[in-house]
Structure formats: structure tokens, C-alpha cells
Amino acid sequence: MSRILVVTSGLSFGAGGHLVIANSLARALREAGHQAEVRVTPQNPFGHQASAYLSTWLTDVRTAQDGGPVDQVVSFRYPSYAVRHPRHVCWLNHRMREYYDLWDSFHATLTPAQQAKETVRRRLIHGADRWLLTRNVTKLFAQSKTIQARLQRWGGIASEVLYPPPPQRDYRCDEYGDFIFAVSRLTKLKRFDMLVRAMARAEAGQTRAIIAGDGEARGELEALARELGVDHRVRLVGEVSPAQLVDYLARCRAVCFPAYNEDFGFVTVEAFASGKPVVTCTDSGGPAELVRDGVEGYVTAPNEEALGNALARLADDEMLAQELGANARQAVSSMTWEAVVSKLVIV
Known about the structure:
This protein is α/β, with parallel strands linked by helices. The chain is built from 13 helices and twelve strands. The chain folds into two domains: 3-162, 3-Layer(aba) Sandwich (Rossmann fold); 179-332, Rossmann fold (3-Layer(aba) Sandwich).
């Protein structure tokens, strides 16, 4: 069996879905008989990207922590795919989105001088990424069709889609309770303000929503709930442990994930594994690839009226939620870590 290094990047604080995927992959590799460990390379803030790419390029990934030789690496997001190894598979989460699909909105926030500087930096990063993802890797997988399309649009880079399965947790379905569940980092791109506004619509009735997670948008969401008079029905509970996450998924009626152009959206497959339908939006990216409208949940127009109508439908009909939840569980049953390992390991 092989000794495999799983490489992702991160700031010195916090963790995201990519780290959950990295740890899940390492566990699946070990269960398949391989030796595997996770290494996190730097992800420097704006203005210091070059040093992050360089330090990653110079990182020794041919030797494991115990000093033994590494047979293969699997990298994830920028700039972790800058590591050098003759057997290097990249399972891409995303490149630096501000220089790709979020460029227009990012560019609009800059002063003219900053725009000129960032335009140059964008060209350099595009060139570096294209070289790294075509010349520095043995094989390239994208974690969703959304990511695959971005690779093709910005760089003409070919890739194969390989969806991550749910993390290895003890998912269960206890009931189809009286609340809608939402969980993620609380940022504007997750659009939980749309969920709060949907809960304020008349058709929402007395449906409750629980929003888990933390982030810069939490204060705004709490203020919005108070302003709309739904703070008694919309509760923000902050960060939750893995056990609490499984419990909320086990007891909710459905999961709402209306994020904008999400890379993949782990919560979708976690909800499916818990037998719960998911309500997302047509422009939500990865989640909208997995949810078939009216089958495993609903894919609505990205506005509070359409979202509210879909949530109300599920809130009013427990049997419907059970039916769509059963479809969701069936859909995710074929997504296994064994299949992922067979794709990512170079024989």
C-alpha cells in the first residue's frame, strides 16, 4: 500500500469545509490500507499571495512526518496545488475566487489605484494557476460541475468531476420536526438574509428556523430578524459541534442552503445522508447540481418569495418532506469514500 500526503491550505485561524474533506479523505485512505496524513500549507491574505505560492512550492512533500518517503500527494485548494511531487493528484475545491468568478464584485470595491494593482496581480495568478494545474499535477479532479466550468472558462483547463461524499459521521433521521435548519459560515455569499426574509412572509406561518454557524454576517442577520419581527422564530445558535450538527439534521423538517454560486456545499450531502430534503436556488452552484427540483428538495428562483413558498410547502406537509427525504437518502447512497479513493490513488 502507498504512503499518501493530503495537502490543503489555510490561514492560521479557522477551518472550512475543505479541511473536513481533507481529514475525511485521509481517514478513508487509512481504512483502505494506505498510510495517510494531512498537511496544511499557508494561505496568506491579500497582498501576500506570491509568498504563499512560493512557500508552498518550496514545501517538502516527499517526506512524511516520520521521515519515510511519500508515494503520492493529493492537493485541494489554492495554493496547495503548488506543491511538487511526481505523483500529484489535485482534487480542486477552488482557486482564489476574487480573481475568478467573484472578480466583478471584488473589483468594484477597489479604488482606481487598487484596481490597477489587482488587475496585474490577477493576470499573474491566472498564469500561475494555469501552469500549476496543467503542468504540476498528474491528474485534476473538480469537486463539482460548478468548479469544472470555472476551470474551463478561466484557463481552458480540463478536469473530471468527483463529488465528495458526506463526512464519516453517524447520520440518522429521528423525526421531521417543526423547524428548518441552515448551517454554514455566516457570510453574505451564503445569503441567509434571504432565508430570514422568507420566514417573514405570510405563507411561512409559524415555521421556525435554526441557523448554525458564525461569521461576519451574524450581527446583521440577528438585526434583520428583529427588524422583521421574526426573531422569536429565527434563532442563530452559533458554532455547533459535529454531534450537535448531526442532531439538528436528524430532527429538522428540511435544510435550507440558498448560497450564491457555492463550490460544492457539504451541507447538501449531509442533509441527504440524514434523510432530509434540501431547498436551494437556481444560482447556488454545487447544491443545485445535487438537488433535483421536486425530487430531493426544491431548486427555487433566488428570491425570498420563491424560497418562502418552497419552505412553506415542506412545513405544511410532513409526508412530502418524508418522501423527498427518502429520495435524498437514496441519491447519496452511491457516493462513497471507497469510490473516491479508487479514483484518487495512482496505481
